[in-house]
Amino acid sequence: MKFTVKIKLIGGFFIILIFLAISSVISIMSLSELSGRLDHIVDFSARSAYLSNKIEQYLLEISENEKNLILAVTVEEKDNYLEHIEKIQEKMEKVQKELQPLLNTEERPLFDKFVSKYDEFIEIKKEVCRLGRLNSKVEAEHLSEGAGHDAYD
Question: Whole-angstrom Cα distance, residue 153 to residue 150?
Fold first, then answer.
């Protein structure tokens, strides 16, 4: 059987179309897999970074309110700062609970170490707040700048 030039051109064109269709299917499947990876990164890594930043922000707010409590003159002001500190601590606990499942095996020991240091930090802050509320500024400032600062670091 003899193939004419027309049949050879049409046959070659169809072979190229088949290869193009196969490569398109493979490319679409690869893009789908890439999209899944990107969704994972956005859902877990970005959320984890956001929550970590929230924790840092809450720590700074707790320290700021502690200093304001020490410097406050009236009992009402001191109670207001103390109430604000307690609210921030509640938010911090929620963020910690939300962050924990997002951590991988490398991050979990660091997070556990942070939680234990944070618990120490909070115990010292409670004592600072108690002393600050009693107008024992000297002892509160000493505790805040000494052991409280060390636990924060």
Answer: 5
